[in-house]
Amino acid sequence: MMMLRGFLPLIAIWLLGYLVDWEAALLTGLGLAGVIVANGALRGNFRSFELAVFVILAALAVFDLVFGRAPGVWPGTVIYAGLAVFAAGSVVVGRPFTLAYGRERVHPDTWSAPGFPPVHRKISLVWSLAFGFLALVLAGAMFLPPFLHVATAVIVFATIAAGCLYSEEQFVRIPGRARSAPD
After folding, report:
1. Does residue 53 contact residue 6 with C-beta atoms inside 8 Å?
2. CA–CA distance from 100 to each of 74, 90, 154, 172 (Å)?
3. Which of 29, 45, 51, 136 is deepest in the core (most CB within 10 A)?
4. Left (φ > 0), alpha (ψ -120 to 50) or beta: where does 177 sit?
5. Gap between the Cα atoms of 46 and 37, Å rounded
6. Could you tell me if 87 and 131 are in contact, meaning their C-beta atoms sit under 8 angstroms apart?
7. What CA–CA distance (Å, rounded) separates 152 from 97?
């Protein structure tokens, strides 16, 4: 469930966006993403997903500062569309973003197993589809009455939880996988 750490800034934005306001939520999420990226860099545990979240949030913060929040454009749509492009792009360039998480979950001998890269391409593409789905759900939510936004939150959190569980399940099914990562 290490992937969940990368989602913490997005969860903070979602909650604070309802409780406080958009600007405070965005700045809090951006700060949290920065701490997560810095922590990973200091520990030598770099994850491109966490950096992608930080970059997308930073771009939104700059846009918000320069232009104000665009009317009718819900930031969640932009965030998840950006993550969909990132996840698909990571596969296109040959570095599926889930590799970092997979390497944390399995023994180093497994990294060279023939099944390791294809499984991570598959997982990253599934995440790309999930992020694209969330972007569409959130775009559609702009046209729903506010009381239905709770249903949207349930869909977002359920999709993220399902993605994390799917990823974990795929990590243990890697052909030629050694039992566990070293301590």
Report:
1. yes
2. 30, 12, 28, 15
3. 29
4. beta
5. 7
6. yes
7. 26
Tokens of 136: 């569409």
Q: What would the two tokens of residue 85 be?
A: 């492009």
pTM of the entire predicted model = 0.86
Q: Which two tokens stand for residue 140?
A: 């559609």
Q: Please tell me the number of Cα atoms within 13 Å of 158 on its side-chain side.
A: 8
What 3 state SS string does the chain have? Answer: CCHHHHHHHHHHHHHHHHHCCHHHHHHHHHHHHHHHHHHHHHCCCCCHHHHHHHHHHHHHHHHHHHHCCCCCCCHHHHHHHHHHHHHHHHHHCCCCCCHHHHHHHCCHHHHCCCCHHHHHHHHHHHHHHHHHHHHHHHHHHCCCCHHHHHHHHHHHHHHHHHHHHHHHHHHCCCCCCCCCCCC
**Torsion angles phi and psi, residue 135, rounded to 5:** -60, -45
Convert the pLDDT of each residue in 71-118 to its tens digit. 555 788 899 999 999 999 999 999 999 988 888 877 777 777 777 888
Q: pLDDT tens, 116-133? A: 888 889 999 999 999 999
